[in-house]
């Protein structure tokens, strides 16, 4: 049977493939983050900060208790990679904001993800465009229960 006549993959096969790729990408991300003295969780926090994000929102994204986020943010703040700011609409809410240094370090982490870059380099322009379109189509459904990046 040729590749063009292969039956469509089952949902289980797709899930297993997505999980394998996600695991490999996460390992690559964690290794690159370690080069900058960051834990994978600290780097994940920086990667989520496209704008101010409430501490509780970070806890939801990280699937952890808000008290755990406090320690993570404390360590990032000590390195001047993030800062806490009062939310302008509710001063009781503390937003976490990446500093210029924090944005720069997460940019470097992403650039150093050699295994992921290498895998993506195997795709031609058309395949990259197709993969991007498919992932963009899946993204809204997969992220429907995550908090927004702004307060």
How does the SSE layout of this entry go?
Elements: H1 11-34, H2 40-48, E1 53-54, H3 55-62, H4 66-78, E2 82-87, E3 90-98, H5 100-111, H6 114-121, H7 125-142
Antiparallel strand pairs: 1-3, 2-3
Describe what this molecule looks like in 3D.
This protein has 151 residues and is mainly α. The chain is 61% helix and 11% strand. It contains seven helices and three strands, in the order ααβααββααα. Strands 1-3-2 form a three-stranded antiparallel beta sheet. A hairpin with a 2-residue loop joins strand 2 and strand 3. Helix 1 packs across helix 2. It is globular. The N and C termini lie far apart (53 Å). 19% of the residues are buried. The C terminus is likely disordered.
Distinctive features:
151 residues; mainly alpha; 3-stranded antiparallel sheet; 61% helix; 11% strand
Number of helices: 7
Strand content: 5-15%
Helices and strands, in order, run as HHEHHEEHHH
Helix content: 55-70%
What is the number of E strands? 3
Biggest beta-sheet profile: 3 strands, antiparallel
Basic shape? globular
Which strands sit side by side, in order, in the main sheet?
A: 1-3-2
Structural class: mainly alpha
Low-confidence stretches: 147-151
Radius of gyration: 18 Å
| Mean model confidence by pLDDT | 91
**Distance between the ends:** 53 Å
């Amino acid at each position: 049977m040729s590749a063009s006549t292969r039956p469509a993959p089952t949902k289980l096969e797709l899930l297993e493939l997505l999980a394998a790729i996600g695991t490999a990408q996460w390992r690559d991300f964690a290794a690159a983050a370690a080069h900058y003295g960051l834990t994978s969780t600290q780097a994940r926090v920086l990667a989520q900060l496209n704008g101010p994000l409430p501490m509780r929102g970070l806890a939801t994204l990280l699937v952890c208790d808000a008290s755990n986020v406090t320690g993570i943010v404390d360590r990032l703040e000590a390195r001047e990679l993030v800062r806490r700011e009062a939310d302008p609409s509710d001063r009781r809410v503390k937003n976490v904001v990446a500093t210029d240094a924090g944005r720069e370090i997460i940019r470097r982490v992403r650039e150093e993800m050699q295994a992921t870059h290498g895998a993506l380099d195997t795709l031609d322009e058309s395949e990259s465009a197709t993969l991007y379109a498919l992932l963009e189509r899946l993204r809204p459904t997969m992220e429907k229960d995550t908090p927004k990046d702004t307060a």
